[in-house]
């Protein structure tokens, strides 16, 4: 039985690692082979193959549901119904439209839309909208969040921006949205948005600072309704009935165990419905049902049976669940507890039962967080030691009871007021912990280093007295002291980050790091914080020798403040110092300034006749051996002509396209004089500026220049001075990427 379940799970999980999906013909052959293997008693392999076929079939269905290429970037009138809870942020709202129809052709079943400056949108309403549609696309960076995989796992086939719209039909049966609005109006001591997150799973009301606090203390899972909340609520019901039965207060004519299991499952499922019953909650309820059934009838078969049954049930219902980090973390946490608790003789005291699970989970999830490129909270075990019982025993019961009793005058609102106060006290305590340590993001290492460190964690989770346990900590500490790749003297590693419509390029020599521009910032979306800082930390960069901001436009300098907060910056230079944000203290760009780091030379230039911020862009030339790289910011054709008269106007192999490939730049005279072989373009997919302009692309094509476009390739990395080729994130094939 166990062998078959392992084979089934392995086949379903393999989907996550496929570079591409098999064609229909190959899939039919695989199904036939799997059936023959089952008939010939090769059932483990047969189950693996059939499970893989099912996963591939579902993956292809999700891909086929994506927006057609002919609609990408077009504005169409569509009509559909709003589902879920719309997320309001300032003057914008983000929501999902289901069953969208257009007279121009078939559309994906679910579309994720943003409406800036539009009216309030409520769940259940039917709208007719003019939408600029886009194929699912996200930023691709090392150790970055894979938005495309997330969209596919959600079975969202397109994204879009609403231009205008008309309400066709008012909301019907939108009780969750109405309940959310009522919760947000409650006097909950300033924590109404936290109550909405805890009760309804709606975190849209939490501020960026709130999420940063939760991430820093490793307590995000407490405000994102998942298996832990479902399990805690079920455990409260089960424990309450067990306590009544123990003291003779439960009716003797009713067997307490079946009633405890049934009521725990009903209560947890009701909570799941209240929270929207999305995939993580469905997964939790399914697993809870199997655990309770095991507790009633199959306890003699061992603790791993419900785990494997739940794992396979979740993956069979939704094979794309393996694309989500939450799937791996939730099942890994349960596996760690099963492994550590089931392998020990004797019972632990109440102190050990309270203290040890948090440390064990923190240790056990360390390799999974590392491989998933997620930050690791150093204060997480201590924070959860306090927060988990606080939420489960105090906040959650009062919040749910208050929500259920809202119709009772005075009682429901006062319970929610009390729950809000309990949350506020917890937030104050978490804030103190967050000030101690920032989350740690381990640097990227070869896979064998990760495997050794993961083996060390497994050894440490073994029962005390095992012979191998002394080897555990040295292996785990490889994460801190892993050997890092050394950049040879005379070379510089160049990484153009994928920051959307903006620019950020990291340059690393053997002992120094320079950041050219810091990515864009628009409203609450700061790519300096979301992209640049995490990538620098993953590279092991704790300090920048120089942050060079070409000019003051927000798409180049918007993320600079976040970079300064995230890493130490020795020096800042800008081509437009007066235009920068006030806290930034930068030195002006000085034409002719040169320096050398580790055998690599750097030179600055700025047009003396510049009249606007773009023309003031501080240009950087980097030379490693016989290779040159020219970073130009947003200079236009006039500044290009002036640059050709400077010492930097010499042939260069690598060129950062001026002004993202704008029509006003990359003149033919400029390109012929520099004779670049490769051009780097950093821009947003489907941007409103039309970058890069078709005329500019035609010039590159006419001159035989290779174009590396961040919107198409994601982040791009190469070694200047090695005369090699560039690597892009899309070179790492995944079946969900075009």
Automatic annotation (TrEMBL):
Subcellular location: Cell membrane
Keyword Transmembrane on entry: yes
SMART domains associated with the record: Lactamase_B (SM00849)
UniProt keyword annotations, A-Z: Cell membrane, Membrane, Transmembrane, Transmembrane helix
Membrane disposition: Multi-pass membrane protein
Domain Metallo-beta-lactamase: 501-685
KW Cell membrane (keyword) present: yes
Residue intervals passing through the bilayer: 33-57, 230-250, 256-281, 301-321, 327-347, 359-378, 390-408, 415-441, 447-468
Name under which the protein is recorded: DNA internalization-related competence protein ComEC/Rec2
